[in-house]
Structures are given as structure tokens and as C-alpha cells.
Amino acid sequence: MGNLRAAVIPVTAYQQNCSLFWDEDSKRGVVIDPGGDVDQIQAVIEEQGIQLEAILLTHGHLDHAGGAADMRDRYNVKITGPHLGDKALLDNLERQAASAGIGPARNVTPDKWLEEGDTVDIAGYSFDVLHCPGHSPGSVVFINKDLNFAIVGDVLFAGSIGRTDLPGGDHDALINAIKTKLLPLDDDMGFLCGHGPGSTIGQERATNPFLR
């Protein structure tokens, strides 16, 4: 991916793939989905000498957004995303944490909500935004076709798809988003997902049992 570098930091009891992306030359970077364990995230930022410029959220569930407010305070950077559809989730992160018995977490309001067709800057690289509801109402995906790489949150996994039994989940909407927005992408487009190993679009189109 050129000079773009990445580190995946599993955070919280849910082992969510918080990710750091930075340009190796400039050291400009962003953190995506800081769900918690902010000290661990900060340690990697400092180890790599990253100048953190932004926080991006793919959706509003606790394990993806629970540490966003603390990260914003520590680095004085803005939070971008997800789609406005996840406002209710982000307004209730403290309650989510109490119910799950993990945390602490703080409610958070992004500095900017994202819409289909927007772009986000990830360490100097422009990624297109796709709104892919279903796992949550406001889930978004970030895609860079030149790099042949996508960050899909909990929309799609290697061999699976996002849960839709949580509040705001919609199985039909999720399948429709995947089939109309992700599967038309190139076979060799790789993606990082919110939990577990990454995969490629072609691999999931051919073998994912939820998409047949």
C-alpha cells in the first residue's frame, strides 16, 4: 500500500480490531474504532512516532467507539463518522458499557457525521465512504480503489457477516448493502474487518455461506 502503514490493536473483551494507519514518511496518522484500552493504543502511537490527526468511527457500538472521547481529549483531534443513523448508540455508550460490565466508556458526539459519497483522509490517502446499514443503522465502510483496500468495520467478515440481532440491526438491509456495494468491487480488494482476520472481496463472494 505504498507508504501507508497499519497496526491492528485488539481492544476490549471483544477483541475488536482497533487500527492505526500512518504514512511512513510524514508520520501523519489516524486511529479507526478506538473501542477501549486507550493506553494500549497510545503506546503504539508513541512507539511508531505517529502524529495523530483524526479519529474515525465505522459505527457506534461500544467495542468500536467506547474510547473515542478519551482519545479525542488526549490528542485534541476531531472525530469523524459514522453515519447519523448511529447517534442513539453513541449517545448511550455509558449505558452500553454498564450493561456489558466493561468500560468505562463515555458518550460521544462526532465532529462530523458521514454520508454516502463523502471521502475521508487517512494519513494523506483519500478513502470513499459507503453507508452500509444493517449491523447498525449508521455503519460505514472506507474504500480506496487505488490501494485496493477497504476498512469495513463489522459489515463483513472472513466467512461471516455482522450480527443483526442487536438494537437497530436489520438482516435484509445488511445483505443488500454487502451485495450491492461491496461484492461489485474487485476480487483482489483486501479488507480489514472489525474482528478476526481480514479477507478479500473475491474470497467472500466465492465462499461466504451467508452470501450465497
Write up this protein.
- The protein has 212 residues and is of the alpha+beta class.
- It has one domain (4-211): Ribonuclease Z/Hydroxyacylglutathione hydrolase-like (Metallo-beta-lactamase, Chain A), CATH 3.60.15.
- It is 25% helix and 27% strand.
- The chain contains 7 helices and 13 strands.
- The chain has helices spanning 38-48, 62-65, 68-75, 87-90, 93-100, 171-182, 201-207, and strands at residues 4-11, 16-23, 28-32, 51-56, 78-80, 119-122, 125-131, 140-144, 149-151, 156-157, 160-161, 190-192, 199-200.
- The strands form 3 sheets. It has a 6-stranded mixed beta sheet.
- β6 (119-122) and β7 form a beta hairpin.
- The protein is globular and about 45 Å long.
- It starts with a strand and ends in a 5-residue tail after the last helix.
- The mean pLDDT is 96.
> How many beta-strand elements?
13
Shape: globular
Q: With helices defined by DSSP (H or I, 4 residues minimum), what is the helix count?
A: 7
CATH class: Alpha Beta
The spatial strand order of the largest sheet comes to 6-7-8-9-12-13
Q: What proportion of the residues form beta strands (DSSP E)?
A: 25-35%
Q: Brief overview, please?
A:
The chain is an alpha+beta fold and 212 residues long. It is built from seven helices and 13 strands. The strands form three sheets. It has a six-stranded mixed sheet. Strands 1-2-3-4-5 form a five-stranded mixed sheet, with helices on one face.
